[in-house]
Amino acid sequence: MADTTQSTPSETASKSTGAGTPQSPLTTPKGTTRIDDSVVAKVAGIAAREVSGVYALGGGGARAIGTVTQRVGLAESRTQGVSVEVGERQAAIDLTIVVEYGESIPRVTAELREQVIRRIEGTCGLEVTEVNIAVNDLHFIGDDDQDDRRGDERS
Amino acid sequence: MSSEYPAAPSARVALAGVAERVVARMAGVALTGGDGGVWQTVDHGRGIRGVTTVAQPDGRFELTVHVVVAWPPEPLPKLADDLRRRIHAAAKLALLDGSLGAIDVDIVSLYEPEPAAGDRP
Fold this sequence. Notes:
Strand content of chain B: 25-35%
Strand content of chain A: 25-35%
Shape of chain A: elongated
Number of strands of chain A: 7
Distance between the termini of chain A: 36 Å
Order of helices and strands of chain B: HEEEEEHE
Distance between the termini of chain B: 60 Å
Largest sheet of chain B: 4 strands, mixed
Number of strands of chain B: 6
Largest sheet of chain A: 5 strands, mixed
Helix content of chain A: 25-40%
Radius of gyration of chain A: 18 Å
Structural class of chain B: alpha+beta
Number of helices of chain B: 2
Largest interface: A-B, 19 and 21 residues
Oligomer: heterodimer
C-alpha cells in the first residue's frame, strides 16, 4: 500500500547547482550552512505527527524495535519511519505511516505531503523535491486497549 | 625554560573563543564537539569544543561552528545568518576581524530543552 508522488526526476536530492537555479539560502558569500540529515528527518517526523489521521510512523517491526531501543535510549522516536536524502539545496523524504481506520488515505497523504514540505522548506530552507509515503497499516480504535489487556494478563 | 606567564592565544584560538562566547549568549543554540569531541580547536593546551578553524592561503581563518538547536527552531538559514553576523561583530570588537574568513555553520541536531522547574506539574 504505497502512495508515491514524484514531482521531479529521481535525482532530485542530488547537488544540482546548475545555471539559472535560484541561490540557496544555505549558501552565502560569508559562509555555508550545513544541516544534518538527522535534523531534516526530525523536522519531517514532527511535521508528520501534526497531521490528523496519522496514527504512527514506521512499520510494525520498526515500531516494535523502536519501542525497545527508545526505552534504553538508543533511538530517537521522532525519526522512526522517516528516511531523508539531503543535498546542498534540495531534500527528498520517504515516510512510512500507519493511518487511523476511517480516514481517507488520499486526504491524509495529501495533507501530510503539504505539511512536510511546508515545515522543511520553512525551517531548513531546503527545497523538497519529493515526499514518498508508504501507508503500511491501519490502526483501529481499541487496538491499544487489547494490547494493554494482553500485557496485564501476562503480568 | 618555561615562562611563568601563559602564552597569548593565537589568532586561531582567539577567533574560536569569540565564536564560543557568541554561541553561549544565544538562546536555543549550543556548541557540540561531536562524537568523541573531534570538533574542537586546540592550541597551547586549551581546547574549544564545537569550533573548528582552518587556515586559508590569504592568512585568514575559516571557522566552522558545530551546533545543536533547540526545538522548535526558528528558520535555520536565518539562525545561521544571525550567528555569522554576531561572530563578525564580536570579532571586530576583539580586533580580530582581519583574521576572520568565512563562517560555516553546521547544524548537527535538534534537541528539546528541559522544562524549567516552574513549568513542571
